[in-house]
Specification:
Blueprint (H helix, E strand, L loop, with lengths): L1 E10 L2 E11 L4 E5 L6 H8 L7 E6 L2 E4 L5 H9 L1 E4 L11 H11 L5 H14 L15 H14 L4 E5 L7 H16 L3 E5 L3 H7 L2 E6 L2 E6 L1 H6 L4 H7 L7
Parallel strand pairs: 3-8, 3-9, 6-7, 7-8
Antiparallel strand pairs: 1-2, 1-4, 4-5, 9-10
Helix pairs in contact: 3-4, 3-5, 4-5, 5-6
């Protein structure tokens, strides 16, 4: 479904991605783990062209993208098939919860307001926010803001969900409610890529784990292979650090 080959990106003299190869099959739930600064978030942003690699290719079913020769139509086609949930919620403060979810449906997908409202209601109910439709972001907790972001991503019916450390900005007591929603989403069969430092959660929900280090995929495998029998010393070191399983 999604094939990434030799993806490279640098900021100035700093190499962020140093030849990333990754293959994702339809229905996969892939958790991307690794130390901070190793390119995990950048990789997700490259998939929908929020970051622009210097070179490498992405194939999304029949859509082909060579980043040395970017094609606007391919970029748009990939963006329409993906949706990203950000660390910092990215909700519009001047819109209510339901307006935030309706916005991409009306602006990007050109749906009528009535149809967009019906879809938004359904997705907000799915994430447990049916009683917050007319609230503004300032009236919500961090967990509720993130669930609004997840509902907005789900509403556009993407083929692939991209979760960028969705609990990193939350107070500890709010993490559980967001993880529960993500678990419900991934168990529905939607293809998902999740950057996370929640190791136990990654182990529980994923069928594949990707370990990134120094801008490359340093190891990948099933949760059992990665967490129970890690295949290289660097992964062992990482798992024994502060990010290890509790």
């Amino acid at each position: 479904m999604l094939e990434i080959k030799n993806l490279k990106l640098s900021y100035g003299s700093t190499q962020i991605l140093n030849g990333v190869d990754l293959s994702v099959q339809r229905g996969d739930v892939v958790s991307i783990i690794g130390p901070s600064g190793t390119g995990k978030t950048t990789l997700l942003k490259c998939i929908n062209h929020l970051a622009k690699p210097a070179s490498g290719t992405i194939a999304f079913d029949q859509i082909k993208m060579d980043f040395q020769r970017p094609d606007k139509n391919a970029i748009q086609a990939i963006r329409l098939r993906t949706a990203m949930v950000f660390q910092q919620f990215n909700v519009f403060k001047n819109m209510t919860v339901i307006q935030n979810v309706m916005d991409p449906l009306v602006v990007v997908q050109r749906k009528s307001k009535d149809e967009a409202r019906e879809i938004a209601r359904r997705e907000l109910d799915r994430v447990g926010l049916s009683d917050k439709l007319d609230n503004y972001p300032s009236q919500l907790s961090g967990g509720q803001l993130q669930r609004t972001g997840i509902a907005r991503a789900l509403a556009v019916r993407p083929d692939v969900m991209l979760f960028d450390e969705p609990t990193s900005s939350l107070d500890p007591e709010l993490v559980g409610e967001v993880l529960k929603v993500i678990k419900d989403v991934t168990s529905s069969g939607i293809t998902s890529l999740l950057v996370t430092h929640e190791m136990q959660f990654a182990k529980n929900i994923s069928n594949r784990i990707v370990f990134m280090d120094r801008g490359v995929v340093a190891a990948e495998g099933t949760p059992t292979e990665i967490f129970d029998t890690p295949p290289n010393p660097r992964l062992v070191q990482f798992l024994s650090s502060e990010h290890s399983l509790q």
